[in-house]
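Re-running the complex after MR caught last week's input typo. The corrected sequence lines follow. Everything else is unchanged.
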Amino acid sequence: MQTALSIALDAFAYGMALFIICIGLSLTMGLMRLVNLAHGAFAMIGGYIASYAVRNLGLGYGFGIVLAVVGTVLIAVPLERLLFRRIYDRSELSQVLMTIGITFCVIGITNYFFGPTLKTIPLPTELAQPIDLGFRSIAGHRLFVIASGLVVAGGLWFLIERTGFGIHLRAAVENAPMSRALGVRTELIYAASFALAIGLAAFGGVVGAEFLPIEPYYALRYMVTFLVVVSVGGAGSIPGALVACLLLGAIDVTGRYLMPDFGNFFFYLAVILVVCAFPRGLMGRAQ
Amino acid sequence: MVQAPAPSAAATPARSLGRDLAGFALIALAGLAGYWLFPDNLAFLTRVISVALLVLSLDLIVGYCGIASLGQAALYGAGAYAAGIACLNGVTEPFLLILIGAAAGAVTGLLMGTVMLRAHGLPQLVLSIAIVQLLHEAANKLAWLTGGSDGLAGMVPAPLFGLFEFDLWGRAAYLFGLGLLLVVFVALKLIVRSPFGMVCRGLKEDPLRISALGISAFPVLLRMFVISGAVAGAGGALGAIATQVVGLDSLSFELSANALVMLVLGGLGNLYGALIGTVVFMAVEHIVAAINPFHWMTLVGALLIAIVLFAPRGLSGTLDEAARILTRGQRRAGP
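Corrected-run output:
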């Protein structure tokens, strides 16, 4: 019972960390129709910045997170203007190739500057201690990740379904020429939602570093995981991404606890079964 | 994104036959030139041929059927492991080993096609990745059969025709591989020219119209998956025979992604591009990655971005374009 509970809590926190990173990718893929395999690369940049800020500059953890998000977005916006904007309406294969290329460049360049070692982001004492929940104690960091995930999910839902920006975004996705004719500045909307997605990736990269350690090949190692999670959930759907992250996170963590030498076998088996049964993802929109 | 070069109306059957023969001769000459020029690097060149077969098989799927796949190494690895296991169990005749590899690849292609063709677009891409990762984990787990993370080693294929040993210098392996590549290439040229190949191309360009002609897509595409699997499997078997080792890397996502990069670098949908891309990519990797692997990644990344932006038809398409502009210039300059 104790083991089952601790597996469940670990799986839940891991799923939430995955969710924070993947939801940005789900939005770019579902709403902007961009297969951005470089999403993990931006999470990695966020992790590197936070690690540098906390370890080398001695700043606080919260400050490190803010710096990571802002810094990554500042790097990503010029890239959006120069590179991504040219492939929004190109085929999936072009998008895959270009974003793999960007990932390779990010890996090569960050390792040139920061060296090929594992980057840790030291936790503040409040998060490193276990917190007593009454029936069980849980690492403070896990609780922080879970709370962040819930806030991100709620905030995004509100932003897309309930605000003017969300209406403009959905209109631009539905029919870009028509929205332009009605005075929606689609390029601005796309740039803003791209920046939002990248900011979430950086945030997820930092808070999820306990589960997905920041290392030289981070962007490549987890590229497949992120892509798989999004396509299982159905691109563009927030509840879909949440369900997929929790489901696959649970399968992954349980498999690792109970049958460690099978590695990711069950994870990919589940992926094949789900995609065969739901070719558009668990809650994908009809194309 | 990549438009297959439209068959020009002027190309009569006789002229295209001449062009094909010239192409085959050029490949054979380039291969023999490699043999004379780099006698110390034959092991590497054999590996290039083995990977070239993988990239050719990927061209059948991506370039001719328009199905993006990031899991092609599943077929290559299946061939490599089948040949390796057969060789360790006493089947040492090299031609038979290639056939075993091709058969294993074809069976894997049948399974992979059956699964992948259920979905379209992004989920299809994800399925291809999931399949190669699943097989990778399975090969890692089934250590009694595959050697696990140590891989298979110690295979000793019988001499070629009973005469030529597969020795340390790899002369026999290289010439054997070159012959295999030529045979496969000619066969594939015939296949993609056949009505069956045309239907595949049609399904890539306009699936709706093909189905309006009364052709159902699934069996056609599945057949192409089987052919592609056989080619990739033969490539894997060649790699197993030549290096006498089969490792988990032959069944990896990395190899699949690299194969796609090589294909796009060379150009999709004309088979020559697959060869050019493989040779250029692996030659540059051989030199640059030895200096610093991270420089190599940056270089490949920049190259990919440049191809998507400036040369969507790859090296072969760009060469073709350049040749066309040049000949047009000549014609204008002439009478």
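None of the earlier attempt is carried over here. Chain A has one domain: 2-119+140-277. Chain A has 13 helices and two strands.
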